[in-house]
Amino acid sequence: MAIIKQAQRQTLGQLIGANNPVVTVPDDSQRQYAWTKKEVDVYWADIEKFMEARRSGRESASEYFIGPVVTITAESKQGRSLLDGQQRLTTSTLLIAAIRDVLWGMKSPEGVSSANNIQRDYIARKSGRKEPMEYFLVLSLFDRDFFRDYIQDWNEITGSCPQIEEPSRPSHRLILDAYNNFRGKIGARLQSYADDESRLDYLDSLRECLINGLVFVEIQTPSSSDANEVFETINSRGKDLSTVDLVRNFLMEKSRSEFEKSRVNDAWRSLLDGFDRREEIEKFLRHFWVSTHGDVKSHSLYATIRKDLSAHFDKRPQDYTVGAFAAELEGAAGRYAELITGSTGDNEFDASLAEIKAVGADALYPLLLSASGRYPYADLHDLVEACVSYYVRWTVVGRRESTLLEENIFSVAKEISKGVPLDFVMQKIIGWIPDDETFGADFLDASIPKQSQARYLLAKMEQYLRRTNDVHEEVVLGDGKVHVDNIYPQKPEGELRLEDHEDWVSRLGNLTLLAGKRNQAVANLSYPQKAHLYSNSALLVSTSTGIEGLWDSEDWKWQVTGIKTRQAQLAQCALEVWPNGSRWA
Q1: What is the model's pTM?
Q2: What would the pLDDT profile of 66-123 be if each residue is shown by its tens digit?
Q3: For residue 522, which phi and psi values (nearest 5 degrees)?
Q4: C-alpha to C-alpha distance for 175 and 167, rounded to whole angstroms
Q5: What 8-state DSSP symbol labels residue 69?
Q6: Are strands 64-72 and 214-221 parallel, antiparallel or unpaired?
Q7: CA-CA distance, 581 to 425, in Å (whole number)?
Q8: Nearest to residue 124, comparing CAs of 105, 150, 102?
């Protein structure tokens, strides 16, 4: 069993900043630098998203947890040996170096001064003229000299590194690629600013976000064997310390008795046993918190939970205990698993839950989680149907800003958890559903490029057509049993390609369902060559909705008027399938 001295929160500046112990990658314990453009692009996108959230000024957006690092911090040794976290710390240093070099390249006194400060505070410095350079991050043998030559041995007079060693290894080229990638992204970003003052503000904000906003958990171990055991445990399971792990550690830290620790462990066993994938646990934890506290973004979830719960747990006497929170978490986990799998035991309710999954309406789960904590599933039929109608009319067909829908749903989830009656919440949701005139107009122009959503919409309209035409024969409309077919093909023959092809190929009037899997060779044929697929289909959405109108048999070409006419016909079905709020008023 590995010995862990402590696990503590560390900002990037506390890990690789001046006056902190030097971080060294042991020569025999880790791979070389390995991040490709894909990982670097994701890292940059996360940083930009975090910067945007931080500008809001919300305390919950002040930090971005980027993962754990495992270090050896033996009492007899200076510095820290890094067993896990090399890729993130190296990439962060590369971005800091790119900021430094862009600042110096501006040639202004403030830019040059800021660049020199960044070099001395976060990359490397000399104590005196004749003293050796002190590097705050020391890579392993294979990358060490190259990293120094190209990134760390920076001359404050020339604003450059010596670049003595040629890039002789794949890791060297990846280091250069990552650095140049960051230089390019920063340069592109600066083009949107009109003057140097604004550019300096942006670069300073980027630096500050990295140094003070990027947060790690440093797992300190006393020996290499302990560090390796922790490192292997984390990586063999494919799991870094995530928000879920951090919350558990926080709860254990705040537990005041063995009983409370036992309740936390019971809750975590429920989480691990109740979900198939790690991502589901992460999503549940956020949705659980949103269901009672309102919206919070994933990157600031842990900071928000820690801050809010600490205010309760640190009170003397406590008004809300760790055990009480763990019990709520465990109960909610069971309900959430039933909601996302559609296994509540109420067939009608489960059918509606299947629609949520089919259309990708994850934003509805916090409300259903909150409501199911206060009402039996049998009382929630109208709620889930109204929410689905709201989601389809607003987001899927209307293509309106999903953020507003989420804010609305999350707000009423919190209200229900605080005791607001279900009827009151229903009236709010009914009022948010777009009216028939709006929905009808949206539907006439709707394009649905996402196959899962198109399949859902067409399957629901097929069910409606069967009911209204008194067709009782059952058909299976699930994924794998039917596929979405573009009547006017995605890749038509050259002379048959419509002008404004992209505007029409994913229109709902051009989509239908066919049994089995897609045959791409057949799908791209002209209408006469595949008309039999529609006329012989068992599905009314293919036989009874005017597909033949998409083809001009006289001029032997596809016609836009047929797509418009069929889409208008489907719009009349859609008004009934996803009703306005009057149905539940």
Answers
A1: 0.64
A2: 878 878 776 545 678 887 788 899 999 999 999 999 999 999 999 999 999 999 999 9
A3: -75, -40
A4: 9
A5: E
A6: parallel
A7: 13
A8: 150
